[in-house]
């Protein structure tokens, strides 16, 4: 199939008619019909059947559509990239991060970045790790700031430093002993998360088996639960400080635990100067 075949087929599959597909593509109805006929001749089978004036895809068309839709998404991303290059000739940074970072460290990093690179347009997206990795691989994201030291095929990782894990809860005091945290008091982080794995591993080393009554997937939700009196949680210090409220106390935990931070990018991504500038600002913020 040629590129024009793909565009017309995709448009008809979406709209259900040649006339609506032509409007969507900005061409005449005869032109769209001609492209469809040429595509069907080239393929050797029909793509649509006409029933009471409406086009319905054939079985072969439904099978093709899975791959065609993926190609069309790539074409749409390419068009968006071309538009952005025209609109933002000086540059554009699309960075992803975990939700808790979007509420804590990223706002001040972006402020500093905009002061240093005023001509670069910024877009910030918050999501969970799997979605961030997917966004980097599809080139929707330029950079992603994450917790953990996982390595991913075709992605480059640059360490930023470490962040200490802390107690956030209603009990004031000095250092907090992990052994004293009972299951009914704990707002847990799911074990498939970077911080969740670190906490679970440390509990296992101590021979402690807490059974949290509440488990969450995001750090700031754990902090919000603690703020509502649901218990105490163990999270990174960056998130804890940004979510601290009256009646909540931050305490260092013993034995101490830290989580590494890193910036990910696609290994074939062209590294622009302001990428390094952004990474340096995140590293500086983590150090503070």
Automatic annotation (TrEMBL):
KW Transcription (keyword) present: yes
Which key words tag this protein in UniProt? DNA-binding, Transcription, Transcription regulation
Question: Start and end of every HTH lysR-type domain?
Answer: 1-58
Q: Which Pfam family, an example, fits this chain?
A: LysR_substrate
Q: Quote the PROSITE patterns the UniProt record gives.
A: HTH_LYSR
Name the domain of life this protein comes from. Answer: Bacteria
Similarity comment: family membership? Belongs to the LysR transcriptional regulatory family.
Q: Could you identify this protein by its name?
A: Octopine catabolism/uptake operon regulatory protein OccR
Q: What gene name does this entry carry?
A: occR_2
């Amino acid at each position: 199939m040629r590129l024009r075949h793909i565009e017309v087929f995709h448009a008809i599959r979406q709209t259900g008619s040649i006339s609506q597909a032509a409007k969507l593509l900005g061409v005449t109805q005869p032109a769209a019909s001609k492209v469809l006929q040429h595509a069907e001749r080239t393929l050797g089978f029909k793509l649509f059947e006409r029933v009471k004036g409406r086009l319905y895809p054939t079985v072969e068309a439904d099978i093709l559509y899975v791959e065609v839709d993926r190609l069309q998404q790539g074409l749409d991303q390419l068009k968006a990239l071309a538009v952005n290059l025209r609109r933002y000739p000086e540059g554009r940074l699309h960075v992803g991060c975990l939700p808790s970072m979007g509420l804590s460290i990223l706002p001040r990093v972006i402020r500093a970045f905009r002061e240093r690179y005023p001509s670069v347009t910024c877009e910030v997206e918050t999501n969970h790790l799997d979605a961030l990795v997917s966004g980097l691989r599809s080139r929707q994201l330029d950079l992603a700031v994450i917790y953990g030291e996982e390595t991913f095929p075709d992605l480059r990782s640059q360490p930023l430093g470490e962040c200490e894990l802390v107690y956030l809860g209603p009990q004031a005091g000095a250092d907090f002993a992990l052994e004293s945290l009972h299951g009914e008091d704990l707002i847990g982080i799911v074990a498939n998360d970077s911080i969740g794995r670190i906490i679970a591993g440390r509990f296992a080393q101590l021979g402690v088996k807490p059974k949290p009554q509440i488990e969450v997937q995001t750090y700031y939700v754990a902090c919000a639960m603690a703020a509502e009196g649901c218990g105490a949680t163990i999270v990174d210090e960056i998130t804890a400080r940004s979510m601290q409220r009256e009646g909540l106390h931050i305490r260092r935990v013993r034995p101490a635990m830290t989580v590494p931070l890193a910036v990910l990018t696609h290994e074939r991504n062209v590294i622009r100067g302001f990428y390094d500038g952004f990474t340096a600002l995140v590293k500086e913020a983590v150090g503070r």
